[in-house]
Predict the structure.
Amino acid sequence: MKGNCIRAAAAACLAVWAAHAQATDVFNLEGFGPVSRAMGGTGAAYDIGPGAMMMNPATLGLMSEGRYLGMGLDVVTTNIKATNTATGETAVSGNHGGNNGPYFAPEASFVYRRGPYAFGVGAFAEGGLGTQYGASSFLSRTVTNGIDTGLDNFSRLLVLRVPFAMAYKVNDKLTVGGSIDAVWTSLNLGMLLDASQIGALAAQNRVSGTLLPTLVSVPGLSGGYIDFAHKGIVGGGASAWGIGGKLGLTYRITPDTTLGLAYNFKTHVGDLTGHATLTAVSSVAGNIPIGGDITIHQFEMPAQFTAGISHRFNDQWSVSADYQRVFLASVMKDINVTFVQSGTGANLNLSLPQNYRDINVFGLGAQYRYNEKWTFRAGFHYAQEAVPNGVMLAVVPSIPTTSVTGGVSYAFGKDDVLDFGLSVGMQKTLTNSSAPNTAVPLKVTHSQLNAVIAYQKRF
């Protein structure tokens, strides 16, 4: 019942989800809302509006008094290309199906600020990833026996947060805040593993289960394919609800300089579950599909610590800077998957190595208020590379690290503002020639544009 209520609240806030947002900081968007996005993803010590609920809830206390209703839309366009460096063949992630971009992620929020208190509720896409290589590239052909399987390779991850936030102004210098978040994680995945990759997983004790002897005995086994997907505009073939939360504070060092600290706790969503098909690829019998249920174990979003500072030089110029530590190593060591065959209960367990590193993220932003109507922003955003060489999966690239940002706001009046932010993720290349996550020497290039527009009404 509780889950249904949360779903209804999310649906009311987000009328439609056209897809999801591709992230730059591995799975996280580089800033939330157009103000933060335009200013290099900063916001720990700066008034970024309702996006505070996703970064530092204490900055809700920096907003002027009143009631705020906000509606926004993220639009993400990606350019992802995988190359087999041994043959020169390429696979482009594009218009091959429902997981391809561009991706659209609406957001909605309500904030009430009065006296020392501020309250907020909203629905935001925290991030995700997405690829769609189609069914005819080298990624759909086994190295063992060279079989063109006709099986699609794709991914689609969406992490949605519904924060319930509060801020309290303790005194003229200190404001504290926090949020409790409903978190929904959903995943689509279609991935072919060559028989050589399955052998490498077995050699590393990363594949097991009562279904394994049956698969190994398939004559002419050339590969295995796992597929679970929700074909609609939102959601995944495997999903789950859980909780998350944040704590934060702002401290006014001087009338024009503010320090901000925030901690975003690791989510507690747990196992993602759904229906799936496991396909054995045989050079003798062709594709042999097996229906069943899938579980992705303990797929969580990482904890994050953020420290930021902002300074106002005068009524026109202000700047902000953030440092963030993202604790990916504790949540992305392995992707652990269990498939259970319908009717028989036979199971197959896979553990795909990831070994992500904890990363440092840096953001810089500047704002110039030209007049009462026009405000201009620019910034820079850099996140260290989290994916080690040797573990990248073609369907899970998430490799851009550097973005340049900018944006503009137009005030129709003191209570009506239209904000726009743009982030240009510079092209990044990563390679992997190591089993078990690839059967061929692989190179992936990835760049993207993240735009967000929002309207805010104060009343």
Summary: The chain is about 10% helix and 55% strand.
